[in-house]
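This entry is listed below:
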Amino acid sequence: MASAAQATAPAKPAAAPAAKTHVVEAEVVSADAVAKTLTVKTDQGESTMKVDAVAAKHLKTLKAGEKVKLTCHDNAKGEHEAISHITVEKTPAKTPDKK
């Protein structure tokens, strides 16, 4: 004879909320690979942000003045936690002027 506990399906664990991200376009001011931070300039001003371990490997190659797109990870409240991905924007190739 089956007990009531065996007859009911096991409860599924609550699904974790999906990680929230947003993309920020910015200009590099400085990068600190040791502290894992990136200081950037945006339309809202200059700010220093934490960089997660995966994205931190790119900090050594960044140069001041480079344009970047930053994928930022947010907490459940939508507050910025860390940069999770860094993409350096390519500058258009210069073509020689024809005379």
